[in-house]
Structure formats: C-alpha cells, structure tokens
Specification:
12 helices, about 15% strand, 2 domains, alpha+beta, Alpha-Beta Plaits, globular
Length: about 350
C-alpha cells in the first residue's frame, strides 16, 4: 500500500547563510554545529494566556543543505492551538537573527505562505511555497534581512498588536513610525531611511545607481525589536512600581539594567566591527552593499535606543561611558544623514 503523499499548508522560510565558506575555514565542526542549531529556534505564544515559550521547536521541519536552511511550520499544527503561525514564525526568526548576529553571522532570507511537502527522513522537499520563498530571497531580499511575502505580512498585521508590531518593518519606514502609522506607508524621513546608507556608499566612491529599491517590502526588524522590548520592559517596571519601596523592585531592575547594558555593548561592538570590515573590504562592492545597509539599520537603532532611554528617564541605568557613546553616535547619525533631531 503506497504512502498518502499530499501537500500541507505552511509558513516556509528559506535562509541563506552569508559568508558560510569563510565560517567553514575559520571554525571547527562543534562551533558550526552550535550555530546551525540556532536555526531551530522557536518563539511560541499561547493567545489565551499570553505565555511565551522559547527553545527548540519539535513541531517544525528544518532542512539543512550547504549554506542554506529551510524552516517549515505547518499552519494546522499551530492554529489548532490558538496560535497565529505567521507571527509566531516571524518572532522566532527575529530572535534567531539576533542570536546569529551575536556570533557575527549575517543571513538573507524570505518567508512565504503556501503548500509544501516535506519528509525529513528521506530528505525530500518540494512545493510552491518553497519556490516562492527561494525566489524572493534570491531576487528581493538583497540585503542581510528576511523579507515577508504579502500573505505572511498580512497575517502578521492581523495578529500583531502595538506591543509586537516593532518586530517588522517596511522599506522607507523608520523604526518608531510604526506605532504612529499602524503599518501604513509614510513619506516623512523616507529619503534618509531608504537612501541614507547610500550616502555612505557615495563617500566611498561606489556607483549607487543600482541601489534604489524598486518595491516596498516588509522585513523582520530584529535589531530594533530586541531593543524596544528591553527598554519598554524596564520603563513599565519603573512606572508601575514607582510607589513601591526601592528594595521591592531592585532585583528586577538590576536584571533589566544588566540586559540593557549587554544589548548596548553588543550593538556598539557590532557597529565598530562592521565599520572596520567595511574599511578593509571596500573594493568588493557586492559585500559592501550588504554591510552598508546593515550598518545603517544598526545606526538608526542605536540612535533610537539613546532617544528612548533619555526620553523615559532611564539613562541612570547605563554607565556614563555608555551614555556618552550613545549620545555621540546619535549626534553623528543626524549629522551624517542630514535630518533634524
């Protein structure tokens, strides 16, 4: 009796690991194995209890081949449990990207919704959703980011709230305009956000005629998403406990301070490393495009961290040298990209 082989509807993500060949040369098998394990990361929320789960997703199919990874989350498996598959996968991918960035790993990918057949035992994988994700990654992603198909973006918008929408972003939108515009497109500051990094390319004498984006794409905004959650968590802790005795919230505040300090140090270190890498490989225009775009996203996020920390009165949590570094980078951002603070 033959097997009943049928397509299933799923959220399918195709990811290309950038610089994988260099990683193979510079790392042992154990390190590469641990990095690849990050591609199994999951973020799951129970809509009824708003409880979050983190770890390895046993429901998800993952295929590894060379420098590419395919993640598959079947819609029925999730939505029978009151979960929105698209937003769960987008948040999973955001945390996955953050973890990879901490290892210096950049990825480019695409997330699509559709039909797929996957057999992890025989390693057989095919379907329209895989083709769509692959083509989007190859043709549209361009930069080190994971773009979303229209269907995936729509499902995220339906499910996401003001508390979670900062995890996705559209070309031409600034980080903090999302909460004001509720996923709508805006023109204000579009030039610096869409083309601001191109000014870096011009300073390096690169041809920028092919850099302009032809369409508006949604993509995962992992840098600002992580920063937003850390800052808002501390702000809420301070505001909701302002009448409590200091010792009652000192433990939680100390934990928040440590996490915020780690994040700021990580982002400042990443900015320094990317800048040095750009200076050392400026003859390779293909790699330069990716790094310049990524550095601009990081610079915008560092600027926004400083403005929120100052605006919410949380600067006392960071050491003076960190506050000074954030202030300096914010000033340089406005000066470099010619927009009013």
């Amino acid at each position: 009796m033959g097997r009943d082989i049928q397509y299933r509807e799923a959220i399918v993500t195709f990811v290309d690991i950038l610089g994988f060949k260099n990683l193979l040369k510079s790392s042992d098998a154990s390190k590469i194995y641990n990095i690849l394990q990050l591609f199994r990361f999951k973020y799951e929320k129970d809509s009824l209890s708003n409880f979050h789960h983190y770890g390895i997703d046993v429901k998800m199919d993952v295929h590894f081949f060379s420098d590419s990874v395919v993640r598959i989350k079947y819609i029925r498996d999730y939505e029978e449990n009151w979960q929105n598959t698209a937003s769960d996968e987008v948040l999973s991918l955001a945390f996955m990207q953050t973890g990879l960035l901490e290892h210096g790993i950049l990825v480019r990918g695409a997330c699509a919704k559709g039909l797929i057949y996957s057999d992890t035992i025989s390693n057989i994988l095919f379907g329209p959703a895989l083709v769509e994700a692959y083509v989007m990654e190859d043709d549209s992603a361009v930069y080190p980011r994971i773009v979303l198909s229209e269907e995936v973006a729509h499902d995220c918008m339906v499910d996401m709230t003001f508390a979670t929408q900062h995890w996705i972003k559209m070309d031409g939108l600034t980080n903090r305009k999302m909460s004001q515009e509720r996923f709508g497109h805006i023109d204000e500051n579009e030039m610096y956000n869409k083309y601001g990094w191109v000014s870096d390319a011009k300073l390096l004498g690169l041809d920028t005629t092919e850099f302009a984006l032809e369409s508006k794409l949604w993509y995962i905004n992992c840098l600002w998403g992580a920063a937003h959650d850390e800052i808002m968590g501390i702000k809420d802790l301070v505001i909701f406990n302002k009448n409590e005795a200091p010792e009652k919230v000192s433990g939680s505040l100390s934990f928040g301070k440590e996490r915020l300090t780690t994040l700021v140090n990580t982002y400042l270190s990443m900015l320094s490393n990317w800048s040095m890498e750009i200076e050392s490989i400026h003859t390779d225009e293909r790699i330069m495009v990716k790094l310049l775009w990524n550095r601009f996203q990081l610079r915008e996020t560092i600027k926004d961290i400083y403005e929120w920390v100052e605006g919410f009165g949380l600067s006392f949590l960071l050491a003076r040298e960190l506050n000074e570094s954030l202030a300096e980078q914010t000033s340089l951002f406005y000066k470099r990209y010619a927009c009013d603070p």
